[in-house]
Amino acid sequence: MRPFPVLWSLATIAFALTNHASQEASKCTSFAPSAVLASYDASFLNTTHFPIGALNVSGILNHVSFCEIYANISYETNSSLIFAIWLPDTQYALRFMAVGNGGMAGAIDYSNMVTQLNSELGFAVAGGNAGHLASENNAGAGAPEVYLPYLHDEDQVRAWIHDAVSLFTPAAKAVVKHYYSHEAKHAYYDGCSTGGAQGFALAEFHPDLFDGIVAGCPGNWYSHLALSFLWSAQQTDTNATFLSQPVLDFITAEALRECDLIDGVADNLIENPLACPFDVSSLACNGSILTPNDNITCLISSHITAAKAINQGPVRSDDPTTSLYPGFSSGSETNWLLQEGTLASAFSIPILQNLVFNNLSYDAATFNWASDVDILDARAGTFIDETSNNLSSFWKRGSKMLVYQGWADPFNAAAWPIQHLEAVTRATIGDNATVVNNDFMKLFMIPGGGHCGASISAQYSNIPAEYDMVPALVNWVEKGHVPLEGIKSEAPSDGSARTRRLCAWPAVAKLKDGGEVDDWESYVCE
Ligand SMILES: *[C@@H]1O[C@H](CO)[C@@H](O)[C@H](O)[C@H]1NC(C)=O
Ligand SMILES: *[C@@H]1O[C@H](CO)[C@@H](O)[C@H](O)[C@H]1NC(C)=O
Ligand SMILES: *[C@@H]1O[C@H](CO)[C@@H](O)[C@H](O)[C@H]1NC(C)=O
Ligand SMILES: *[C@@H]1O[C@H](CO)[C@@H](O)[C@H](O)[C@H]1NC(C)=O
Ligand SMILES: *[C@@H]1O[C@H](CO)[C@@H](O)[C@H](O)[C@H]1NC(C)=O
Ligand SMILES: *[C@@H]1O[C@H](CO)[C@@H](O)[C@H](O)[C@H]1NC(C)=O
Ligand SMILES: *[C@@H]1O[C@H](CO)[C@@H](O)[C@H](O)[C@H]1NC(C)=O
Ligand SMILES: *[C@@H]1O[C@H](CO)[C@@H](O)[C@H](O)[C@H]1NC(C)=O
Ligand SMILES: *[C@@H]1O[C@H](CO)[C@@H](O)[C@H](O)[C@H]1NC(C)=O
Ligand SMILES: *[C@@H]1O[C@H](CO)[C@@H](O)[C@H](O)[C@H]1NC(C)=O
């Protein structure tokens, strides 16, 4: 019977842990970063120590205790960017991770910050608000006829996607170095959507800052991404052309019926939509049924015209052979509802009214798909696009980039990152380079994948919605391990245990003979 010594030793351990934790807390709260920040024109704002589990970002708790430092950096004449640096107490592994923003930004992406902090890779993590405040910009939600101050300030427009991450990164790296007395050996970036565009901006405009970049569902041709939203909205803005959710579900079900089995696996999924010959015209009612009901068995011609236009994507009115942005792929239809007005109202119309025409009464229905495209390119594209095909500075430095894109992403046409990867490969490495031997950028297409994770529609709720991109990037940067054997995806929104193998384009996952369909280990990339 030895209760006493056991209690005694537990108490000792508890005391030691408490003591250690309080040391970490006092190291944090007594840390004085003002001088180091000042050398980067940044101002110290405040410090807080978070014990394990003290932070809850939309349900994600911090699994490691950390020191939070807020700072403020002035840029250009009148603008300011707020950023946070999270310094883990114990697991710093000489790695720095910066995260990007979503949508119109204006707020720090704490959710991605806590995800990166919790990873076992030992990151010191930093994130900023992109140089403007959501609170001063309609809570970061664009809407028609709403004045968004940041879109009227050229410095803030430039900062938003092109420069925001680069503005805080040197100061944040310096703080990390001073806190641990060891600078990070490797610097990484992770962002999706607008954050994916910010990733391309880093590679293009700030190629020396990061060794590895994850750019998810990248909106890096931002001005034309906005055009694609407007295009889809205009194609479906009458009762005759609007595609209801049952109509969209019907089209996707028919595409799956035709193409699911192309890869030999019956999984309600098109592995590679480019290999799918599905044509929505084949669903024509041929005059027999004029009013679709809930049990749709065919499509009226105005629905077919609308669906084909969304498949095609926007083109110039003065030259219909000139594509302004790719269209949406077979199997993505079930997620298109957002394309039918919501995204135009949230992005295209605000960008046209505030940034391009500086006229809140501007009527987007009058957009001229020739002359106004040129105006948009000059007044918006110049400041918010990051589409250079020549990333040679980034490449020559030896930095690596992982791009991922959901095939059923309702925001970004999935063909865009493929098209861009091919152009970047040739312009950066050489005319004869191919995406297969590209040694600095790999693209992972996600069958059934949505925008930065789960698909909205129930159709694809079984698709794994988390992708192990960051560990793969770290392995590539630090060990030279090119992720050609694929990357694991997991955590579908339906809560099932399904995992899938994602492959570096143009490889696709192939089920091994007799393999378990829902286990990523059963697949190889071919
Ligand atoms: C620290 O500063 C940030 C940015 O201004 C602010 O959001 C936060 O509430 C501050 N935290 C404390 C503890 O003062
Ligand atoms: C974390 O926040 C979520 C809401 O975002 C809440 O449902 C959950 O109970 C919280 N968890 C804890 C441990 O406080
Ligand atoms: C950040 O700095 C700018 C310029 O120095 C200042 O105007 C602004 O109020 C500061 N913001 C915060 C949250 O301290
Ligand atoms: C900076 O702000 C001041 C005061 O609001 C204004 O007069 C000035 O024009 C601004 N400068 C720039 C470059 O935006
Ligand atoms: C569209 O349909 C709605 C109801 O379904 C109807 O109220 C409206 O008048 C119709 N609009 C046109 C232009 O036909
Ligand atoms: C309508 O006719 C076309 C051309 O004959 C055919 O391809 C299509 O499958 C038909 N549609 C339906 C729903 O049967
Ligand atoms: C639609 O299909 C359901 C189930 O197959 C059936 O119960 C219902 O009667 C059908 N409705 C119409 C209008 O055909
Ligand atoms: C703003 O747009 C409206 C609607 O297109 C137009 O009538 C008006 O003339 C425009 N205002 C200016 C100042 O251009
Ligand atoms: C790509 O950019 C680099 C400088 O960043 C330049 O030296 C090179 O000539 C460019 N390549 C092409 C094909 O334009
Ligand atoms: C590209 O390939 C073609 C045909 O094989 C060859 O003639 C050409 O020299 C190659 N160019 C470069 C830059 O290697």
From TrEMBL:
<keyword id="KW-0858">Xylan degradation</keyword>
<dbReference type="Pfam" id="PF07519">
    <property type="entry name" value="Tannase"/>
</dbReference>
<dbReference type="GO" id="GO:0045493">
    <property type="term" value="P:xylan catabolic process"/>
</dbReference>
<dbReference type="InterPro" id="IPR011118">
    <property type="entry name" value="Tannase/feruloyl_esterase"/>
</dbReference>
<dbReference type="InterPro" id="IPR029058">
    <property type="entry name" value="AB_hydrolase_fold"/>
</dbReference>
<keyword id="KW-0119">Carbohydrate metabolism</keyword>
<dbReference type="GO" id="GO:0046872">
    <property type="term" value="F:metal ion binding"/>
</dbReference>
<keyword id="KW-0106">Calcium</keyword>
<keyword id="KW-0732">Signal</keyword>
<keyword id="KW-1015">Disulfide bond</keyword>
<protein>
    <recommendedName>
        <fullName>Carboxylic ester hydrolase</fullName>
        <ecNumber>3.1.1.-</ecNumber>
    </recommendedName>
</protein>
<keyword id="KW-0624">Polysaccharide degradation</keyword>
<keyword id="KW-0479">Metal-binding</keyword>
<keyword id="KW-0378">Hydrolase</keyword>
<comment type="similarity">
    <text>Belongs to the tannase family.</text>
</comment>
<dbReference type="GO" id="GO:0030600">
    <property type="term" value="F:feruloyl esterase activity"/>
</dbReference>
<keyword id="KW-0719">Serine esterase</keyword>
<feature type="signal peptide">
    <location>
        <begin position="1"/>
        <end position="16"/>
    </location>
</feature>
